[in-house]
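The freezer alarm interrupted the setup, so I double-checked each line after restarting. Inputs confirmed:
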Amino acid sequence: MSLQRLWTRGAIYLVLIAFSAFYLMPFYVMIITGLKPYVDVNVTRMWELPKGFYLGSFLEAWYKVAPNFANSMLITIPAALISSFIGSINGYIFAKWRFRGADTIFMLFLVGMFLPYQGILIPLVQTLQALKLYGTIMGLILVHCIFGIPITALLFRSYFAGVPNELLDAAKMDGCGFFGIYRWILLPISMPAFAVVLLWQFTSIWNDYLIGLVVLSSPRLAPINVAVQNIAGSYTTEWNVQMAAALIAALPTIFVYLALGKLFMRGLLAGSLKG
Amino acid sequence: MMNNGKLNRRDFLRYGTMAAGAVALAACAPVAPGAAPAAGGAAAPAAASGANQLEIFSWWTSGGEVEALNALYDIFKKKYPDVEIENSALTGGAGQGGNMKALLETRMQGGQPPDSFQVHLGHELIDSHVKADRMEDLETFYKDEGLTDVFPKDLVDIASMNGKPWSVPVNIHRSNVLWYRTDKLEAVGAEPPKTWDELFAVADKLKAKEIPALAIAESEPGFCGHEFENLLVAILGPDDYRGLFTGKTKWDDAKVTEALTTLNKVLDYANPDYLSTTWGDITDRFMADSAPAMMIMGDWTHGVLKSKNFTNYKWAPAPGTEGIFIVLSDSFGLPKGAPHRDNALNFLRICASKDGQDAFNPIKGSIAARTDADKSKYDEYQLSAMADFKANTLVPSIQHGAAAKQSFVLDYDLAINLLATKRDVAAAQAKLVAAAADAEFEAA
Amino acid sequence: MATSNPVSVPGERTRFAAGSTTRKKKTLFRGDMLIAMVVLTPSIIAVALFIYTFIGWTFYISTVKWNSVIIDYTFVGLKNWQRLLNDDRFYTDLRNLVYYGVGFMTQCIVFGFLIAALLDQKIKGETFFRTLVIFPFAVSGIVTGVAWRWLLQPTTGINLLFAKIGLANFHPVWISDPNYGMWAVTIPAAWQFTGYVMALYLAGLRGIPQEVREAAAIDGAGTYTIYRYVIIPLLMPVTFTAIVLTGMNSIRVFDLVSAMSGSGPALATDTLAFFMFQTTFGAYRYSLGAAIGAFMMILSAFLVVPYLRSMKQEVEQ
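Predicted 3D structure, all chains:
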């Protein structure tokens, strides 16, 4: 290895380490602040490690957000599962049953991915009120499922498009119909796609703030991010508790990401660009 | 966890219980809210209907406030042990209780009101919900409970539209209080200023010692709106001030200009980082060694300072407002179609009662809206406020929803924020005039 | 994902290219085709109602008089739009959008590309670095805002770090600056989103055949030249995707500013989304709020239309 190459390699690692430090910094601050009692939370010593292992802030934060944490689970898990399932069927149709106009409908679906929600918020509230679903967890699940239709259809369509039509034709010969092909051919091989879509839907629904804020009016039923903002917006809440609550709110997505992130990246990299 | 003695035994037990409760909550939550809408179908704010409950909406989530509200709940529970109370408290968003007000509005609009809700007495309630015909009037309730005799007439007027009261005030806060650090004023040998001219004289002395005169926190619109209502009252006097909301006094009046100019001058004597200080941090700033000498803020400040065991301060009426009491009040009303109307009425009865008010207010740091409160339960500041409340002229607060509707308050805050940031008096006044035009102030 | 809204996922543009749906066999039964249509119908209805009807309804509300708590469908034409166009706040928000868009996009694309290019150099611990950089993408805007609000406090946070390394005089007020506060908001925003853009670029780089680089190297091109004249042009589609995604993100910033500073001093950190929320649900000016929402739709269309057009070709292959 030449000296110059050594220098270059060194510089590359140095830059990467610097970036890593930057990306970790807020997590570091959240963790150390959350582990400090209020008396030690001080503007001049904010970067210092806590003196001991103090869990009081986390317990207090957990006490405050636990019901909302449960709500978010109740909302996110069914909504992610249902919308992924709908997406797989829709993607299957868009990929393999391209009736006249299917492509146009697909394009029209995709527009939904780019919506700024502000453009539909008022009718949304009015409609949910009329359906008597306003302020209910069911209502929020419904909304997330519907707004998940475009992205899930897109992801599954891309995946199923890669399945050779010959496979489907063979299944046809064996007497499989619309549902048979889905059930016996595509569903068994679509687990990687399900993982990607579920991960995507789980994180985006869990991290939602606006829709939860507007649709779920009762603080008792509100999802976790609304609760965290509620704590942060309350004038007298200590920083240590705010940071602890924020970290609690981030844990499930971080966990899912660490568990499935590789898969996510693999899906991403596998679909490498051809230019 | 215990090795460094950070957590004493009491705390440990407390957190232990909290954690256990939290786990239990997390464990049963899936059954409760999930099952209700599924089973009930139309049962909107899940589980609210049907059972014997009472849902109270408020933006009280901070220490002190929560305990005060719980004191009311405790009385309620003792009297009506079968009723399950659902406390819906939400804060956050722009302005005090911003998100709570937004969500309350969508619920009211959708015909899913809570049983009762916290609302600032006055126009915040009247323009948001009474005019939309969503509230029951409380005329008979006031009569039956004899409330017209125990609430001052000025206060009942603020609560009323078309001659009928629409909510029950549970407390009284005063907006126009000057809090001052005794050590800082002593350092320059000054007395608390009684007029704005005196204030500027003191401020100059303080400036010579590099002490900011007034604490300001304008990182977001709001705080200076509070300062400005104090200036308006001081400069216009009570009658012209009230006239601002009936169209009698114009917002382009020279006196309004004077008030704006004065606020603009005040900013030169404020803590220099007032644009990066948040309202929530201001009491911490006031307690710090390097604190500004004075602060004009509502009397909830007293409760907060007391809870932090800070004693190095005293109070006086804000400059130019002696004999006047800028009032704001938290109240509870009765929405039409309240799912548990009887429970709501019982709750209002407790809010209005002497016991209720004397339980709530000493904790909240406010005073009772009733004039017959039990004086032994209140502290030195509160007693002085009670005396003033009885003797002074009452005028409604703008910033805290008593004088004008919510949309006006937002516009007003933005206009004042413009002054605080761009220091342009004429531009700010133009905004105020436009806001007043939009609010359609006219004689009631 | 980081923000509350679904956006496109990387790879979709190319996956279409890889698709093999060109030859549609007539052997599939007509009846099954009918089933497919029937199965798709509920989704079509849901999208038609919750997306298209709602958009139309929002535009409609923006033409009526519903600017108080009392619902009022009296037609007023373009009055709400006029009011919006006469409002200083609207222009401040547009200025903020430009600041945010430029700051956020630049950071995401420049750093995203840089990190991807570095990671593409056969780095030991690539997974580790990659995971770290994408990590913030897993947390919500609210969480990001809460953490960064403190980091950007002038009296502590990052400024304290600066002071520790001897830069005590460098003392920006970040989000509290009444003129340029919005630039500071782009730091946490980019912190959250750069990893995603990096992943897009990394996928793109991995897709460039080794022969292309080798051929360029044989021609005597240096590293810089290869990147400047070969790789970056080849990655234009990725850059295009990144611009669309970050652009969409810029239009609807809400969570982050809600958690950090609200509208800030002199509306320095105000956004159209925040303005819309406050107008609608804070001041109960529904029709004006609808006009803002509709305006945001129109803005988005400028990004969506070219993006969809580029996708359309691939879809129809």
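Quick read of the result. DSSP finds 19 helices and 13 strands in chain B.
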